[in-house]
Design brief:
single chain, alpha+beta, YaeB-like fold, 2 domains, five-stranded mixed β-sheet
Length: about 140
């Protein structure tokens, strides 16, 4: 009698878990479809959040010193967009708690194709993020 009762409880419990996980799976699929249609992204990690906050600023300015380096290494606006999407924020060299405008050190390797040859160069972008404006303060070529 006790064995039959345990079998019934196990069957009911398994059925409830089945309904729960089935509904959960359908909800996840529906949510991912809706978010894909809306173009929603989720930035969970500090690196992604920082880059996204810089991207969302109203204006992105380039300091004269940074512009000189950009001209020297033939960097353009597409390279800056690449940095803001794929860069790696080095928080040990950044000053994220400075008020009112924290600055961030972003490391990136940029490849340029010249004469059927791809040359890669590492750079460090120092970007200051204020309330409405982000400013590229300096671009340093790294060895």
């Amino acid at each position: 009698m006790i064995k039959e009762l345990l079998k019934q409880i196990d069957a009911k419990l398994l059925r409830r878990f089945g309904y729960y996980f089935g509904g959960l799976a359908l909800g996840v699929v529906a949510l991912s479809y809706i978010n894909k249609q809306k173009g929603t992204t989720f930035a969970y990690f500090p690196n992604a959040r920082t880059l996204k906050q810089i991207q969302l600023k109203d204006t992105l300015k380039i300091d004269a010193l940074a512009q000189k380096t950009m001209d020297q290494f033939h960097l353009d606006s597409l390279d800056i967009q690449y940095v803001l999407h794929k860069g790696n924020v080095d928080f040990s060299k950044s000053h994220p708690r400075v008020t009112p405008c924290p600055d961030y050190w972003i490391d990136i390797t940029i490849g340029k194709k010249t004469n059927d040859q791809v040359l890669s160069q590492k750079f460090a972008f120092i970007i200051e993020r204020c309330e409405y404006v982000a400013t590229i303060k300096e671009i340093k070529p790294l060895p």
